[in-house]
Amino acid sequence: MRVKRIITRNFAIGANCFLCIILLLYFYPLYYSAYLDWGLDVKQNKTKIMVHYRSNAEKVLRIAYLVSDLFVPYITIGILILCNAIIVVKLKSKYRWRQSVAVRNSNLDTKSAETSAREKKLALMLATVSTLFVVCLLPQSILMTCVSLVRELNLNGAYNDVTLLISSFTLLLENINCSINILVYYCMSTKYRKTFQACFFHALKPNNEIVTRTKAVP
C-alpha cells in the first residue's frame, strides 16, 4: 500500500520523462563528436557520405566513455548489490520476529510459516535476477572500460579485432539477460505466472467454457 501511495500516475510519468532526458544527455557526446559529410574513400576511389569526427572528438569521447562505461555501470551494480543485501537482511529480521511472535501465539504459527515461505521465495527471486544482471552485463562494462583506458583497443587501434570479437559475446550476454528474466519470474512467482496465463491464455478459456456448458445442457 505504501508503494501505491508513493508511485502515482503523475510520479510515473515524471520519472519516465526524467529518464528519457537522462538518456538523451547520455548519448549526446557520442553524436556531438561525429557528423556525416562527403569524403573520399581511398580504397574504392569514390566520393561518398562518410562519418567524420570533430577536432576535439578524442577528448569528448574519452570523458564520455569514462562516465558511461566506468562510473555508471559499476555504480549501478554496486547500488543493486547493496539494495538486495538490505532486502535480504530485512526479510531475515522479519522472519525471526515472526518466529518469536508465533512461539507466543500458536494460532499465528501457520500464517507465519506461509509468510516466511513466501518471503524466502521473494528473496531467492530477487537474488537470481540480480545475479543474472551482474553476470551478463559486467563483461560488457569491463570491456568498455578497457577500451576507454587502452588506446590500442579503440575503433582505429591495433587490437580493434579483439574488441569486436569480445563485444560479440558480451552483446549476446546482454540479450540473454533481457530475455531470460521473464522465464525467471514465470517459474518463481506464482502471481506473475497466474497473471501471465490470464493475459496470454485468455482466448482459450471462453471456448472451453462454451464446450462444457453445451455438454452440461440436457
Describe this structure in words.
The structure is a single chain. The protein has helices at residues 2-6, 9-32, 57-104, 109-149, 160-188, 190-200, 204-216, and strands spanning 34-41, 46-53. By secondary structure, the protein is mainly alpha-helical. A two-stranded antiparallel sheet has the order 1-2. Helix 3 packs antiparallel against helix 4 (109-149) and helix 4 packs antiparallel against helix 5. The chain is elongated, with a radius of gyration of 26 Å. The relative contact order is 0.06. It is a multi-pass membrane protein. Keywords: G-protein coupled receptor, Membrane, Receptor, Transducer, Transmembrane, Transmembrane helix. It is found in: Membrane.
What would the principal axes of the Cα set say about the shape? Answer: elongated
Oligomer: single chain
Largest sheet: 2 strands, antiparallel
Query: Over the alpha carbons, how many angstroms does the gyration radius reach?
Result: 26 Å
The percentage helix is over 70%
**Uncertain spans, ≥5 residues at pLDDT below 50?**
208-218
Please count the helical segments: 7
Give the amount of beta strand, in percent. Answer: 5-15%
Spatial separation of the terminal alpha carbons: 48 Å
- Element pattern in H and E: HHEEHHHHH
